Amino acid sequence: MKNDRDRSIALAGLFQSAELARQIARHGMADASAIGSTIYSLFQTDPPSVEAVYGGSQAVTIGLETLLRQLEGGKGRDLETTRYVIALLHLERKLTRRKSMLTRIADDIGHTATRLEHFPMSHSNITAGLAEIYSQTISTLQPRIMVQGDSLYLQNPENVNRIRALLLAGIRSAMLWRQCGGGRLQILLGRSRLTRAARALLQETRPGADPTP
User: What Cα–Cα distance (Å) separates residue 120 from each residue in 14, 28, 65, 95?
Assistant: First the structure.
């Protein structure tokens, strides 16, 4: 039985994917460690726990901070990130009804995983492979996610690949969120429980720090 902690980690993973994609589109860069942890989640097919999907709860710190800002309307809240999250949740629901596409994605990710023997997690070769998977599968579902940003950064193929890889990871987290019992009602009616769990997780990753992002 999954609990609020698990649901908060999964939702933080989803918010982290969306926020990192937004940052790359707007600024051409994002936290490299967070990108690596987010991409790491795509290759975890049989994790022992929810937090193991990301390599530990500390790996979704940016996601936890973003989740709190978005749910509580705090400083730095960005509705664009929320828009991406909503779109990813919607697409994940569509994907669950496309069994053949799910199988193709799993097979293609497995093929991409073989490259990890030669390249690090965030290497352009890995993100290019994941971006191609996204383009050939998730991107064919409607409505497509239209990422907004600075044209200077969006014209860079490596940035585009990173964004697509992160959105694919967002679908992974959306699926995990649903598997943990998450849904619209959890966000609408269980918001206070999610935010409490998120603050507790932040205090674990940053002992003694103010949990307010």
Answer: 22, 20, 26, 28
Q: How many Cβ atoms are within 10 Å of 102's Cβ, its own excluded?
A: 14
Span 78-103, pLDDT tens digits: 889 999 999 999 999 999 999 999 99
CATH class of domain segment(s) 4-205: mainly alpha
Q: Which of 177, 173, 210, 169 is nearest to 194 (CA)?
A: 177
Q: Which of 157, 134, 166 is nearest to 32 (CA)?
A: 166
Provide the token pair at 63.
Answer: 């996601």
Express each pLDDT in 121-144 by its tens digit. 889 999 999 999 999 999 999 999
What are the domain boundaries of the chain?
Answer: 4-205
Quote the Cα angle for 59-41-80, to 5°: 75
Q: What is the pLDDT of residues 156-170, one digit of tens each?
A: 999 999 999 999 999
Diameter over CA atoms, the chain: 48
d(CA 24, CA 121): 17
* C-alpha distances in Å from residue 127, one per residue of 58, 123, 130, 159: 22, 6, 5, 10
